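Dear U.,

For the methods section draft, I wanted the exact inputs and outputs in one place so we can describe them consistently. I've listed the two proteins in the order they'll appear in the manuscript figures. Please don't edit the token lines directly; just add comments below if something needs changing.

First protein:
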Amino acid sequence: MSLCRMPSEILRLIAVSLDPDDLFNLALTSRHFEHVIRDGVICRSVLENARYSPEYRPFKDTEAKDDAKRTKEYARALRTLVKRRRAVQMARPFHVLEISREAVHFIYANGAVCYTTKRTSPVHQHHLRILNLKGPSAREVSIDVLKLIEASAVSDFEESRPYHFRPLYYAHGIISCFFDQRKSPGTGRWLIIYSLKDNRILSSYHLRSSSNIFVRNNETYLYYGSRSELVEGKRRWSIRRFDLQKSSWLPRKSILRDLVGSDIGSTICFELFGDHLYGVSSQEATEMEDVEWGSPKSPPNSFYYAFQLTLGDHPTIKDLPRCALWRRGATDGPIDDRWNQLQLGQDEKTGQLSIFETRKEWLTSWSRRSCYRKQLFWPSSLENTDEHPEGKSYNGWNITPPKEMELGNSVHRGDNGFCASTFDFRNSPVRSYNPSCQAFVDIVSTTTASSPTAKRLRLRDPEEQHVRLWPVDHMQQDGHRSTSREQLWNQYVDELLNPKAYFDDIDSAMDESVIVYSPKSLYPPDEPRSIVLVSFDPSLHFEGLCHASSTPPPSMYDQLNKASSPESGCDFTRIRGLDLSRLPKTSEEMTHTSSTTSPN
């Protein structure tokens, strides 16, 4: 019997058993099934199979309601989830915009871009700006940095002396910032915690050391750590806790004696999930430093280190045994450390916590970039581990290195030295891996057939051995010259993606749906720079963006100069960009538009 002739009750039973992508594909197959992707009851059941996705998160944070409005929200959230995944995998963003041209330091965390502006005159003061992307429309809050410092408990602050101020982390309406001012005889370093909801400073904490400082928080607790404790003559990580409800610090700090590594995001990472703070390192305290790969002194196997810190008044630290954290063998070849990336992520369906490490390995005279996933299983009780537990077994864990055929879904092979689309490290300023979509997402510097002499930053997504570049070079793809309208749009996108013709480095941050980057020059170090945001989330809304279906605008810089004139009264007009959620259906973009159009 055809599915089209099945009773609606049977069709609904089939639909609720599908995953989000399969349900979306079913709706595209026939007009008879278009309703399934808008049926709130079906979408709620299917969305609950991705309860750890960012689209389902708002439903967990609020009380469940079964009214008609709530039902429609489930359907909209499901469509957003599928379109976000497809946009990443197809390298087709929904928004490209330049947030600011006057930023000095910036971070991106939990859906908010936080950056500081430089004080260049009495009119252009030193501000901390927080652009929250969530909600009906993106909104920006501006805070005077000098007033913030003066309102804190920072002692002996001198406005005439140079000082350093930068944001560290943002979550749940709490912004944490680092401040230091060099004074005789020493340096005053402070951690300033500010609540946007209450419009007040929660704490100003004097720091003994700020080496590799990081901050993580939820709505109840805030944790900050630094690599500042001397243990047997070597620096180790320590973590302190702040109770946001009681506005008090826990007197005792936690010292992680076995946690090594200093480069957050490359060799070490920290994240909050549920009621625990997790930390992972790709190095071991027992590893020998400066040992050449393949030498007799090099260890035969490499292991991760992972810990779990319980949140609350009585924190406890659990370390996973070494035999559960096998990383790689010496026969896997040497590693190009410049490409190393380390992150923790949750499976959107099960919530399973995993390590995701991206590295480029050299073997048999060619290199290959891969992302390895290592699942972390935390039993209710752990046995004490020795320094060398190779000969022991812990709860069924096996130290035997897996074979290539046994890796299965735990490894994602990227491009290698034989690919024509391979980019070297210098031309790959932004490198990332999206675990939610299982895709490498990079910003690369490349030339096009229409602009063979000018390098352009382009979005590159190698997925399933097929590399997609955006923006697409129409002249190279189909051999025809672009129309004048297409040339204007290409010029506008070029200006958005390439705010700086020459740069020394790029700072970047990303999550499941957004990439934020900022090209910078090393000299002078505090030169104002642009922040570029590329969004794959169709649910985001920005005021004042141009639409690709409209007439191409004049040069973006002419608009920015006009918006920054004294006559311009709207502070939000500094943001300029392009809304690609409703593209004209050209032959090249027909598939993308039909499958990733912004939800109504």
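Second protein (the one for the lower panel):
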Amino acid sequence: MSTSSKLANGSSGPTPPLTPKSNSLALPLGACIERSRPRLSREQSLLRLQSQLDNMPTPLLKHGLLSRVRREDPELFFSAIQADLVNLAPIVYTPTVGEACQKYSQVYSGPEGLYLSIDDKPQLRQVLSEYAATASHQPQIIVVTDGSRILGLGDLGIGGMGISVGKLNLYVAGGGIDPSGCLPVVLDMGTNTESIRDDPLYLGLRRPRASLEEATSFMDEFMAAAADVFPNTVVQHEDFYSEAAFAFLEKYQDKYRMFNDDIQGTGSVILGGFVAAARRASEASGKPLQDQKVVFLGGGSAAVGVAKEMMTFFRMLGFTEEEARNRFWLIDTKGLITNTRYDVVAGKLASHKEYFIRNDTEGKEFKTLAEVVEYVKPTALVGLSTTYGAFGEDVVRRMADLNPAPIIFPLSNPTSKCELSFEDALNWTDGKVLFASGSPYDPITYKGQLREPGQGVTDSMITGSAIALSEAVDADEASTGLLYPRLTRIRDVSAQVAVGVVRAAQKAGVDTVTSLRDISDDELFAQIKKAQWSPYQNEGVSTSRL
């Protein structure tokens, strides 16, 4: 029995069973399981699916239906997503994907990617090689998680596969990546959530999560094998717990084609929105851009990563690294991170937080967000605390008192973990807020005006994507207070961001397609648009984009 067959049949531990049509758990995102069904036109199939979705009573049931459609008819699935991305993105990704991950083993209906157990470390390279030998396409991008910190929901073990799949769904629908080139991966290294381990339906390893040392050894093998077997593939790390996320990024970012979405990807998107918001806040206050001061609620990997990426804004204004860092104040569960706080003095502060230790508070300690806001008088408030309602009315109203256009970004997701709702933000600031959130909120008519919320590799490439994103907001979007482009333009915006990334790679000298250096931005944009995948494009239909 081959290694992949052993893995598929669960001989290395309780892994998901096979569907009748499958002989491996290594199914790419675009794999199609053939089944007998009535012959319908594309339009009829799409209308039928939309009708079925409309009659589903809960988002989780809609998510389950779409998952089945993706496995059976990927082109129908992505046609539906592209046709109604605004309403279906929250179903295939946050917030619904959070519940789907929590209940992954209970609602499991078939394999969706590559499941790799830490017990299979000696055969890891063989498993990947066997997948490469049988796959119709080699992956362009791998999204890999160990399930240790899924959104704000904690350690969900093998249930993290839902995040890898969900993120790749968006890359196909919004970015135009060919689904056959997308490979979702979950690394099963156990889970520290006892209720999950003890669940009789749980499909993963029933053991405590591997130590960082053991996990690093496994990751070393995975990253090396992935680079050897798929040399042209980008590997995205998704939802690893903070200590591991930073350790892996530092170890691998200069060696492999990889990035960490929570540390770098989220940071670049938030930087793009912050640049747009800071410009508007400066216009409203009459104060220079250099006066921006940012308070973060949250001290995890995402918060530190976003703060470091946002420092680029101040560096572009001519600040030194130290001056830029001093525009940020980070609050974790123990309060403002200062050099006199007891855990800092005792050397017990998590290493990833050390960069933002404040040494200018003269021994004063600040335990609450309200105390820090009163002390700092910030222009911007960013939430990555995973604490629902953490931005209370008193704090939000105080931000509005301090600023004609307060910047408030409650970024925790899913919605059940968000620090502030869009409606409360508008009401408590008299509509003055510049708002972006980590999970979607519906537009609101406030005082007669439709208000829409924003939703929120080399370092220079990450920054290049952020600047391109900030410049993608058109005049109509800016006039309604949007900090990010509308989802209905996501394919054009994705291509525009890609132009920024390519140019940054060229400037850094790490680009591999040198022929792109000599063409204009408009020509590069056109080439990227032409390369974007669309459903049914191989059948001669139009490849027009949303």
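Candidate sentences for the figure legend, describing the second protein: The domain at 3-256 is CATH 3.40.50.10380 (Rossmann fold). The longest helix spans residues 261-285.

Thanks,
Y.
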